[in-house]
Amino acid sequence: MEKFPHLLVLDFDGVICDGLQEYFQTSRQVCRQIWPNLPPEKLDRQRDNFYRLRPVIETGWEMPLLLQALATGVDPGTIEKTWPTVAQTLQNQEQIGKFQLAPALDQVRDNYINQDLTYWLELHRFYPGVIEQLNHWLQSPYPRWLYIVTTKEGRFVQQLLQNQKVNFPLGQIIGKEIKQPKYKTLQQLLIKHNYASDQLWFVEDMLTTLQTVADQPALGQSSLFLADWGYNTSHTRESAKNNCRFHLISLQQFSRPFGQW
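Given the sequence above, the corresponding structure tokens read:
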């Protein structure tokens, strides 16, 4: 493996930032809007289950669906084992899906930012050492290019990083507003910078996302890292460890020189 990435791409949630408290509060607000008959105390009782089961979710718009499922008595064990099926059943039953839930989440976030920015910012915490590491990379010759590619709206990421005094170039934060899978964005970045795929390193906390990237011939030589501190399970981490295509990385390694990754 090359010692330095020319192009280092990071996921945001679960790699840079832990937003579990914000996910819960925002999802709770959306549930209150969409299912007004659900008693708030039923939602509140599911906080810990929601935190524990967050790794089953692939994209953020499913979060209110997860909270609604828990609050209406769907067994957490069933959710853990068969979330895609549970989610599909719920969408059919409730006649609801991504096109209602995603804008509702964004609207709640925008309302927080406009009305109570301090509270919203305080719901997020950054993993230890990560902010310092971002600042270090932004000032050093390697990586040549540093990007954040996330399924969150880019404007929310900008707001959070600005609050941490990270002067991250806005053109290098690519959020869900571009409406395409991450692998496509990675391919476009390689073309844009005229790099070979072995010059790209990608850090992500969702193994399914890494697998999709690994399946693309154009990204066949890229180095793919699963962040073991993110929203994944011991089972997922074990799978990554046993697959030579992926590298399991710890938070300690993340803050070390690239040669120690």
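Residues 7-18+126-260 form a domain with the Rossmann fold fold (CATH 3.40.50.1000). Try to locate this feature in the token string yourself.
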